[in-house]
Design goal:
Elements lengths: L24 H12 L1 H13 L7 H11 L7 H7 L10 H10 L3 H4 L4 E9 L5 E8 L2 E4 L8 E2 H8 L3 E3 L5 E3 L4 E3 L1 E9 L6 E4 L1 E4 L4 E4 L4 E4 L1 E4 L3 E4 L2 E8 L2 E9 L6 E5 L2 E5 L7 E4 L2
Parallel strand pairs: 3-9, 4-12
Antiparallel strand pairs: 1-2, 1-8, 5-8, 6-7, 10-11, 12-19, 13-14, 15-16, 16-17, 17-18
Helix pairs in contact: 1-5, 2-3
Length: 285
Amino acid sequence: MDERDCSRPPAHAQPHGLLNQGSTCYLNSVLQVLFMTRDFREAVERHTCENPKSEWIDQQLKDLFDELQQRKAYTYKITNKLGINNVNEQRDAAEYFEKILSLTNPDASQVFHGECTHKTTCSKCHTCSDADGYFWHLPLELLDSYSEDYSVVDGVEQYFRTSYFDGEDQMYCDLCDAKCDATTKCVMKHHPEVLTLLLKRFDFDYSYMRYVKNNRAVDIPFILQIPENQTYKLYAIVDHFGDLRGGHYTATVKSPDDERWYNLDDASVTLINCPPFQGNIIGNP
């Protein structure tokens, strides 16, 4: 918990914004979070110094990060590298978060890279099979929760909870050569340095035959503990306002330079004097 005097002026100049090329708020929000992730930023800088002609996106990121430390910046080099030809088309922030990381050198991207193992156990012969998978984020459904508002803590517990398959849902076991009762459980094999959670707000509504947004309020803890006693502290949120066909993205981030929270809305940067992150917060990320 941050117990500092909220009226104290920041130790450093506040962050700078990113100019919107049309509808590139989804990209701006993601880039601001990456810029504010100090270990990622430093890894990008190291790589560009050691590999100035690298084919990764690191050089474009470093150029942008250098400019952001001085002034408002444009994202022309990034959009060109990503092949974004239509800057007036609204796109998905989570998609471009993954795309940027997949094009960044492994030493930098590993900051966000985790690995899970999905264990399936036959209840009859007790044979256990593992399926490993890497991830950039953990997807959380906004459906089941013990509270009226969606709880991220409940969602994470549900993600790692053992699931049981019996009756018509039995699973085929190769050793038994038959369908048997079984259990599945997700286990974190490698904890990323920075854990990213994706709140899946868009569900397909068969009544309207289209995707609709779940605007349920979300209870987000300042400190989150996941299995194996790994603890993460909240430092950034990307918010989406609007629906699937349109809307706007902003980022709320804690600066590593002065430990204060800012709302980053394209070129506009606003200091949050007394951040509402002291405990649980209700948001729409």
